[in-house]
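Long-time lurker, first post. I've been practising inverse folding by hand and with some scripts of my own, and I keep getting stuck on stretches where the structure tokens seem ambiguous. Below is the full token string for one chain I'm working on. Before anyone asks, I'm not after the true native sequence, just a reasonable design that respects the backbone. If someone could post their per-position residues I'd love to compare against what I wrote down in my notebook.
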């Protein structure tokens, strides 16, 4: 005979209402009570009927997460923290590695309308503006749309400003910003603005070298840059992945890092923590970005007002691609 929540309540010594609150993650429930309920469920082999519960609550307890590529260290770390957060809240995750494919992203958005997921968290650089609505339970990361949607980002402008300041403090006289630029407007574009303002404030000579995505030949991209700007001694790169490609080409050119040119990236992946080739980088609070995205989405799912954009602080993380500060500056 199948067990019910009445049986769970009896074994746990709590009310049926309390068991229901634990199962649906609603209401103020202490950790001690929550643990008693789960132990009771385990002792009588009770498994909630997720389908019936979804119909009753009009919730699937599935959240969709769409990122350009799960292979990218930033995106994979971001998804890792989202999954951890949602798991603690008894939600499941569906992941779409969209490869910047507009069609796949639109299909994923339609899953909300079809009640296959309760909401979506997305990092997208595709032209999907007209498919994104303020009426959808949707949280965007690093990207704003025509309609007001919830979004989370790091302080990209301040990150660019920090990068310029750190290069100049370390003796750089001629600095550059290098970037591949997404075709859709997004918050990461502010990295350049902060860098430019930071260089101007210090009266430091600078150049900006950008190219629209996709860049199919990074070797040529970097070669053209150095043939035109061979005097540069400090570079801020739009992200760490591009920084790694740059380091590979510099090695081929015989240009030493940081002796000949100092480099700062942006992201500071956890992946690099255990490697000697640690990059100097502007560290994004990836865990906090992921958890803020989850918290915002759940508020929207519960019909609360769309929260204001969340802009999280960044910081410089010193690695091996910049020189140490002169002793007198410590």
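-- Answer (accepted) --
I ran through it position by position. Result:
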């Amino acid at each position: 005979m199948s067990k019910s929540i009445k049986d769970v309540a009896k074994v746990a010594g709590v009310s049926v209402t309390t068991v229901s609150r634990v199962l649906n993650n609603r209401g103020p429930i202490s950790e001690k009570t929550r643990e008693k309920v789960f132990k009771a469920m385990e002792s009588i082999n009770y498994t909630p009927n997720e389908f019936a519960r979804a119909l009753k609550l009009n919730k699937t307890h599935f959240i969709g997460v769409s990122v350009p590529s799960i292979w990218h260290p930033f995106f994979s770390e971001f998804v890792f923290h989202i999954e951890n957060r949602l798991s603690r809240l008894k939600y499941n995750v569906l992941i779409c590695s969209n490869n910047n494919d507009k069609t796949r992203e639109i299909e994923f958005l339609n899953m909300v309308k079809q009640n296959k997921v309760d909401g979506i968290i997305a990092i997208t650089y595709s032209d999907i503006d007209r498919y994104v609505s303020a009426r959808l339970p949707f949280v965007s990361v690093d990207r704003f749309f025509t309609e007001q949607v919830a979004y989370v980002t790091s302080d990209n402008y301040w990150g660019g400003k920090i990068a310029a300041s750190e290069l100049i403090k370390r003796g750089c006289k001629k600095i550059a910003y290098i970037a591949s630029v997404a075709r859709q407007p997004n918050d990461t574009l502010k990295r350049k603005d902060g860098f430019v303002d930071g260089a101007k404030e210090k009266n430091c000579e600078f150049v900006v070298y950008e190219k629209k995505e996709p860049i199919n030949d990074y070797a040529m991209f970097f070669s053209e840059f150095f043939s035109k700007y061979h005097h540069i001694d400090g570079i801020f790169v739009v992200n760490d992945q591009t920084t790694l490609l740059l380091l590979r080409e510099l090695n081929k050119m015989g240009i030493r890092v940081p002796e000949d040119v100092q480099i700062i990236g942006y992201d500071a992946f956890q992946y690099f923590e255990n490697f000697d080739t640690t990059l100097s980088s502007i560290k994004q609070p990836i865990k906090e970005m992921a958890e803020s995205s989850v918290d915002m989405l759940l508020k929207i799912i519960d019909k609360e007002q769309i929260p204001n954009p969340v802009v999280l602080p960044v910081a410089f993380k010193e690695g091996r691609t910049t020189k140490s500060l002169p002793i007198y500056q410590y």
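A couple of notes from the structure itself: The chain is about 40% helix and 20% strand. The mean pLDDT is 89. Happy to go over any region you disagree with.
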